[in-house]
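Trying the structure run again after the queue cleared.
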Amino acid sequence: MLGGCATSGTQALAPFATDGCSDFPDGTQEHKELWRKCCVAHDVKYWAGGTVAERMQADFELRSCVQSVGQTATADVMLVGVRFFGTPWLPTSYRWGYGWPYTHGYKALTPQERAQVAAQKKLQELDEGISD
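Done. C-alpha cells:
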C-alpha cells in the first residue's frame, strides 16, 4: 500500500475506489452501464482532488462524456448533482478529493501529492486495466 510512502508533512492518499455513478444509475434500462466509464473517469479526478478550477473541469468533462453517448438531458442532471453534492465540505465517500483526509479541501496538489496520485494510478492500471 502506498500510504506509507508519504513524506513528512504530506498526507497519505487512500487507494483509488469507485462505485461508478454513486447514487445515480450507471446507464439506462436497456444499456445498464452506458455512461459508467464517464463516472469512473470522473471518480479518478475526484479521488485525486485539487483546485476549484480542476473540479469544475472534471464536472464539465463528465457532462461532455455522458452527452457523447447520446444522453444530453441525463448529462445536465448529472452536472447539477455533482456541482451540488461533490463539494469537499460534505463528509461523503464521493466528495471532491475523497482520496485524501476529509480536511484536504480545495488546493493545488503539492509535488509529493501528485507523485502519490501518479503512483496509485500506475498501480491501478496494472491491477485493473483502468487508465485516464
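The helical segments are 36-48, 52-68, 72-85, 111-128. Worth checking whether this holds up in the mutant runs.
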